[in-house]
Amino acid sequence: MTLSENSVVRVKDVQELFQCSERTAKIKMRMVREALGKPVNKDGKKGGGAITLRQVKGVFGL
Predict the structure, then answer these.
(1) Angle, helix 53-60 to helix 11-18, in steps of 10 degrees
(2) Does the CA dihedral 57-61-23-48 come out positive or negative?
(3) Region of residue 7 (left: phi > 0; alpha: psi -120 to 50; beta: else)
(4) Element housing 55 (H / E)
(5) Cβ distance 36 to 55 under 8 Å?
(6) What does the alpha-carbon distance between residue 51 and residue 8 come to, in Å, rounded to a whole number?
(7) What is the pLDDT of residue 43?
(8) The predicted structure's pLDDT at residue 25
(9) Would you say the C-alpha torsion 37, 5, 45, 22 has a positive or negative sign?
(10) 44 φ, ψ to 5°?
(11) How does pLDDT run across 5-57, given as a tens digit for each residue?
(12) What does the pLDDT read at residue 60?
């Protein structure tokens, strides 16, 4: 993965970072959004807040 700290992460990026399934990656992304107080994609609606690699690492302590 060649992302900078300020890059917006996608599901595939989280999968590579944690070596997990797509479902687990989506759950981890939701956890980060909730921890940061960003909008969370619920009920199939678009609008989950974008998160960066720095934010993911900060929430999970990496």
Answers:
(1) 40
(2) negative
(3) beta
(4) helix 53-60
(5) yes
(6) 6
(7) 61
(8) 92
(9) negative
(10) 75, 10
(11) 788 899 999 999 999 999 999 999 988 988 988 877 666 566 677 889 899 99
(12) 86
Please state whether 54 falls in left (phi above 0), alpha (psi between -120 and 50) or beta.
alpha
Tell me the two tokens of residue 20.
């997990």
**One-character DSSP codes across 8-42:** BP-HHHHHHHHT--HHHHHHHHHHHHHHHT-----
At 22 the pLDDT is 93
Classified as helix, coil or strand, 58 is: helix
Overall pTM > 0.70: yes
Collapsing DSSP to helix, strand or coil, 6 comes out as coil
